[in-house]
Amino acid sequence: MRIAYIVPYVPNPIRTRSYNLIKQLTSLGHDVAVFTLGSSQGDQMDAHRLKSYCHDVYYYAQPVWRSFLNSAVALPSEKPLQSVYSWQPDMARQIVQRAAQNEFDIVHVEHLRGSRFGLYLKSKLPSMPVVWDSVDCISHLFQQAAKQSRSFFGKFMTRFELSRTRRTEGDLARRFDHVLVTAPSDREALLGLVPPGKIPSEISVLPNGVDLEYFHSSAEFQREPETIIFSGKMSYHANISMAKYLVEEIMPRIWKFRPAAHLYIVGKDPAPAIKKMTRNPLITVTGTVDDIRPFLWRATVSVVPLLYGAGIQNKILEAMATGTPVVTTCQALSALQAQPGKDLFVSDDPDGFSQAVLQLMTNRDLQQKISDAGMKYVRGFHSWASIASQLMNIYQQILDSKRPS
């Protein structure tokens, strides 16, 4: 199958969904042409590396000033800034030109930021099969953030964008041949945005996976007895809110019984509020790390105290794949098929959350039991190979439906 894969940011191991799906699709023998945008030398390098997997990689420079200009122009309109941020007319024309020459059987467009490329293609070639991978329902995320974010900027921006995003996502959910999301809650949220009387596209749940060759357990590292890890991009408003909740409400309850317990906050671009947490000698904020696995391999427990969010938390899958026990909230569990108390621990209040962490710290047998169950779970439900096979089935169903009977 000849697949055009449009991604408004360069796929790499951090942008795990597009990166791994592209790798898996090419390994299955399909020709994948990637159209993508970047703004840095690192993006160029990632695009160059991607060429070793792909049939073609079309990389377009998108300076940050151009994205800001796109957003500024959209301010007086009803368009969400996310939907115009990555717009690049030259790339859009190239996609249409290639598609018009019958180079692709199907087109895959990722994220709200990429949706405009899909709409542009449909306006020029209405019969071209286009799958929109929404990934998450952004409106669903923004609605939660507007109420619960502990970041002032995050709360302001999500409130500003919410009504625009609702209207746009409700329209997008019926404009493509198929829509994908990572979790059932996002599917329900998208369906709820479709205007009454309008017929939505078919929306399928295609979960995220984890690279099981990269994320695995290691006998070379010993777990440190009182080490807690929280990971993610630390400029992201949901992660900032989680970190504040963790440090202000959960860790004091842990330190009451384990005064030497050490928290590692691992991830790129920590916001000023996160950096200030290092005033406590029991908290380390690492910033960008070359390899997160040693932190996971040494940790007693990985914590994901999700207050709000959408889709699947990749940090949970990565921790489970390395054999690191996970404690999270019901909000995060709703996107998974993992069983609380067996594959991981779940609690929505600071007392219960801290007790779960303390239990794992003091009980080595329990720690090992949860570790083993977590690894078994991700192997069974979140292999990228099986997820790519599900995606191929969806592609084939679309193409079959378009053939004359």
Give the secondary structure arrangement, pairings included:
Layout: E1 2-7, H1 16-27, E2 31-38, H2 41-50, E3 56-61, H3 64-74, H4 81-84, H5 89-100, E4 106-110, H6 111-124, E5 130-135, H7 138-148, H8 152-172, E6 178-181, H9 184-193, E7 203-205, E8 227-231, H10 237-257, E9 262-266, H11 272-275, E10 283-287, H12 293-298, E11 301-304, H13 314-321, E12 326-328, H14 330-333, E13 345-346, H15 350-362, H16 364-381, H17 384-402
Parallel strand pairs: 1-2, 1-4, 2-3, 4-5, 5-6, 6-7, 8-9, 8-11, 9-10, 11-12, 12-13
Helix pairs in contact: 1-17, 5-6, 7-8, 8-9, 10-15
Please explain how this structure is put together.
It is a single chain. With 405 residues, this protein is an alpha/beta fold. The chain has two domains: 2-209 and 384-402, Glycogen Phosphorylase B (Rossmann fold); 227-381, Rossmann fold. The protein contains 17 helices and 13 strands. The protein has a seven-stranded parallel beta sheet, with helices on both faces. Strand 11, helix 13 and strand 12 form a beta-alpha-beta unit. Helix 8 crosses helix 9 (184-193) and helix 10 (237-257) crosses helix 15 (350-362). The longest helix has 21 residues, at 152-172.
Could you name the key traits of this structure?
405 residues, 17 helices, Rossmann fold, six-stranded parallel β-sheet, 2 domains
CATH superfamily of the largest domain: Glycogen Phosphorylase B
The dominant shape is globular
Radius of gyration of CA atoms, rounded to a whole number: 22 Å
**N to C succession of SSEs:** EHEHEHHHEHEHHEHEEHEHEHEHEHEHHH
Provide the helix percentage. Answer: 40-55%
Largest sheet: 7 strands, parallel
CATH uppermost class of the largest domain: Alpha Beta
State the CATH topology of the largest domain: Rossmann fold
Provide a count of the helices.
17
Query: What class do helices, strands and sheet pairing give?
Result: alpha/beta
